[in-house]
């Protein structure tokens, strides 16, 4: 309902009855909006001689103030609160749906981003099978790079892995100090096979490793091999089960042509058991390099002179007088002399619990206190002492006890 006050001396006549009531000095006009009126506008007509026949009345606007603004905000909040309380269930469901939609959109964006920034599985053609195997083996080699292998055993699988990408073998020098052992030195330089140092340095007996001695240390396990007549690279790799590429790379070979006496480093290869036992002081070489015949074995026998049962403490090798006698293993000569039984004889201490005796010599060449290497000439064959003819009587002791020479002798010359 809107009220408009009109003050005047003229008499107003309304076009439609029931709209105006006269009061003293003024007219109070009350009306209802016509159905055909425009929004916010009402049309009226007056019979006033001095004025326009029609005029338009609009809404009355209130003045704006801080108080009115705050009042409007309070009213709005109150209305929102009332709506929320009245429709709480619907509001909660709407919020839950919005949260679920937001979470789904977040993970969808993360999935799309991951797909864009990360590669999928890599596939290779069948023709790249060799490359795939090489890649797999190199990764395993990396994981096993710090594995240790003890004793004289070589892990063939690890050797193959390491051999995939081979660098030339290099060497460094090391001076032995007091208390060093061959296995300790190998471990110090990351070598797993004692055959490596024995082969590279041509060590005849590890028991005689001495302080101040200089050793060559290779950058990886392996042995030195000297080319002989008839050798080819193919025959060498097949005999020692190594890859051709590895042999070429490690030795920096640019040609497959070999020469007799040429030395090659065979990576991952160890010494054969006979050679290793010999270097460890557990295998002796034959003291006679010339032709001879075995005449009497170790153990019980009939005495050749007295004809009675007796125990023979060594083994006899018959050969002409003057045949050279060599040290069966490196060591120190601890005794030379003459006896009724052994005639002229020599005893060598090999430093590992072993001692050997050489008897019935015609001449002693070695001297007491002398260090002799394996194959050093120590005397000549004869028939001195208790003997029936020229021969060498050879006896082996282990920690003071007699040992059958045939159990430790390498019978090849």
Features:
single chain; 413 residues; alpha+beta; ten-stranded antiparallel β-sheet; three-stranded antiparallel β-sheet; 23 strands; 26% helix; elongated; disordered N terminus
Explain the layout of strands and helices.
Blueprint (H helix, E strand, L loop, with lengths): L3 E3 L13 E4 L2 E4 L12 E4 L8 E4 L8 H21 L1 H30 L11 H15 L12 H7 L8 E5 L6 H7 L5 H7 L13 E5 L3 E5 L6 H8 L3 H7 L12 E5 L5 H7 L4 E2 L7 E4 L2 E4 L6 E4 L2 E4 L5 E3 L4 E9 L3 E7 L4 E11 L6 E2 L4 E5 L9 E8 L2 E3 L5 E2 L3
Parallel strand pairs: 10-23
Antiparallel strand pairs: 1-3, 2-3, 4-5, 6-7, 8-9, 11-14, 12-13, 14-21, 15-20, 16-17, 16-19, 17-18, 18-20, 18-21, 21-22
Explain briefly what this protein structure is:
By secondary structure, the chain is an alpha+beta fold.
Task: Explain what the structure shows.
With 413 residues, the protein is an alpha+beta fold. The chain is built from nine helices and 23 strands. Helix content is 26%, strand content 26%. The strands form seven sheets. Strands 11, 14, 15, 16, 17, 18, 19, 20, 21 and 22 form a ten-stranded antiparallel β-sheet that branches. Strands 1-3-2 form a three-stranded antiparallel β-sheet, with no helix packed on it. The chain has a two-stranded antiparallel ribbon with strand order 4-5. Strand 17 and strand 18 form a beta hairpin.
